[in-house]
Recover the amino acids of this structure.
DNA sequence: TGCGAAAATGATAGCGAGTCTCATAACTGC
DNA sequence: GCAGTTATGAGACTCGCTATCATTTTCGCA
């Protein structure tokens, strides 16, 4: 849940990691990273593109996808899917701090939650299966309090 | 994990449920349902289309998607996403029995697992958030034992 | 059993997220 | 600055999926 506090360092960490991996620093890449760093939850590529355009920092849509692909490969962002056939992305903090999502099938609302017992169960499962798990997705779908009437 | 035992009844239950909901019985719908009933894990729409064609039961691709949409709306199948931008579908047994998935990012292998502690944690979470949760997705991503070397 | 309204089906056009291509612009080491 | 290399962006393209619509099939009813 506490996301913003550490996210300012995420941008720096991420740019360092890219440098370390032999990438140069271009304007589009930096713009996408800085926008992502300001978020508290996931964004779609289109939303990132719109956001940058709105703040007069227009970037080619292809660049947005390219940056996201590189960041995902380096495990600096998590690509996730909450339905609707649109991929969403959010920063992966070095601390491992993260959250998961509740989606209301009726109104489309997306809420975040985090839960230690859940993380414990997931950690055990990965170990048990002999997998080196580096990410997990959890999405709960249903009707939120407002929609259930 | 135990899927096949109850899946033979799933086809009948599903066809009954459709009737009850006011749907007529068409050949395409029955073919898709019967193919799904024979599976132990998720299939994509294309895989279903290919499978039916291979068993000389060709069906329009549009019908496959339509049937899956209806079944998903009636919560008779679960639509899930293990990455790659392709939706997959698997029967939802009336018993509530189900499993989740481990995906190897290297070789693409998809394995199923089920775990009670995980289900308990998820149930608690839904209640806690005031959601009427009717489905949840859990996907663990990483490197399987074979790929990690 | 045969009719007709209404639903199911399938071919195909259309849509949109995401990828590929390639010419141009920007970065970096010299 | 210069050259070599990487990053960028416009647009063509791919492909999963949906919408459309003419045709076929189902099923209540006479
Ligand atoms: Zn989030
Ligand atoms: Zn988690
Ligand atoms: Zn499965
Ligand atoms: Zn479960």
């Amino acid at each position: 849940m506490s996301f913003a506090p550490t996210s300012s360092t995420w941008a720096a960490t991420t740019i360092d990691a890219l440098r370390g991996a032999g990438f140069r620093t271009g304007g589009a890449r930096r713009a996408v990273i800085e926008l992502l760093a300001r978020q508290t939850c996931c964004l779609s590529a289109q939303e990132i593109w719109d956001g940058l355009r709105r703040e007069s920092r227009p970037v080619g849509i292809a660049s947005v996808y390219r940056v996201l692909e590189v960041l995902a490969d380096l495990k600096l962002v998590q690509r996730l899917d909450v339905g609707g056939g649109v991929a969403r992305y959010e920063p992966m903090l070095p601390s491992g701090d993260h959250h998961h999502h509740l989606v209301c099938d009726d109104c489309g609302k997306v809420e975040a939650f985090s839960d230690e017992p859940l993380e414990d169960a997931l950690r055990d499962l990965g170990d048990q299966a002999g997998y080196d798990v580096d990410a997990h997705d959890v999405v709960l779908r249903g009707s939120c309090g407002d929609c259930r009437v």
